Amino acid sequence: MGAVVDPVLYAVPVFVLCLALEAFSYRYLPDDDERGYEVRDAATSLSMGLGYVAINVGWKLAVVAVYTAAYAVAPFHLPASDPLTWVALFFAEDLVYYWYHRLHHEVRVLWASHVVHHSSTFYNLSTALRQTWTPMTALPFWLPLALLGFSPWMILFQQSVSLVYQFFLHTERVERLPRPVELVFNTPSHHRVHHGSNRRYLDRNYGGILIVWDRLFRSFEPEGERPVYGLTKNVGTYNPARVAFHEFAGLWRDVRAAPSWRDRAGHVLRGPGWTPAPPAPPTPAPASTG
């Protein structure tokens, strides 16, 4: 297995430079329609990013072990020396990311992990760093790629490429790009929609590098009205621990209060807005005929 080179590590200085340049751009070229930066919000995002990195130091070892075991039993191994292998991996990984991302919006226990990334009411490059502290929910989604014969180091490399690309989507400073780019690739305009809490923008534009999956699976929405960033019910705190775990706490409260196992399963496995149907009113007793 080849040595793992993580593009994220090499990109960190670029991230820091771009974040600083964007922050300075708001200071010297303000835009009344753009929210820019707020110190406490940006500090929370940075704290979440550092926590994500620290947790992943250990978690990635478990991921590599599982993917390696799956790769070992794969019926064939795709050669990393063949450029077509990398082309296939690019499209396969991006499709996996689409469904990983979509299901993390549609299944509440997964949303409890992903909600962290949507918890800021600002939208800037620091928002890209607001990452989950429970990355364990991602493990099953990329596992089939190892079973298809992609080497674990290749899968992890392509995941990092996607993560680096997506960092630059989190900005209001870039308007729409040329039409061919907007048609095929995920762009800041498309991703602003994804972070909007406007009704028409909810659960739209899940793509990683490509936007074609959203067009294919009918989850695409172009940017129209100005996005209102954040959640439909914002968490209202800058405490990183509360941001990281507030939805798990809410899910646990709902599960404990549910009157039946069917309703408990619904809270865990159905969408974030799901609530049990109210009990049917009692059937009135038949009128007495005397």
Q: In words, what does this structure look like?
A:
The protein is mostly helical. The chain has one domain (7-248). 54% of the residues lie in helices and 0% in strands. The protein has 11 helices and no strands. It has helices spanning 7-28, 39-72, 83-106, 108-114, 139-147, 152-167, 179-184, 188-194, 212-216, 240-257, 261-269. Helix 3 crosses helix 4 (108-114), helix 3 crosses helix 6 and helix 4 (108-114) packs antiparallel against helix 10. It is globular. The termini are far apart. The mean pLDDT is 93. The chain crosses the membrane at residues 7-29, 49-72, 141-169. Residues 86-218 form the Fatty acid hydroxylase domain. This is Sterol desaturase family protein.
What are the segments in which pLDDT stays under 50 over at least 5 consecutive residues? Answer: none
Number of strand segments:
0
Number of domains: 1
User: What does the average pLDDT come to?
Assistant: 93
Separation of the first and last Cα atoms: 87 Å
Helix share of residues? 40-55%
SS-derived structural category: mainly alpha
The total count of helices amounts to: 11
Return the string of H and E elements: HHHHHHHHHHH
The biggest beta sheet reads:
none
Strand content: under 5%
Cα-atom Rg, whole angstroms?
Answer: 22 Å
The general outline is: globular
Keywords: Lipid metabolism, Membrane, Oxidoreductase, Transmembrane, Transmembrane helix
Biased composition (Pro residues): 275-290
Membrane topology: Multi-pass membrane protein
Region (Disordered): 268-290
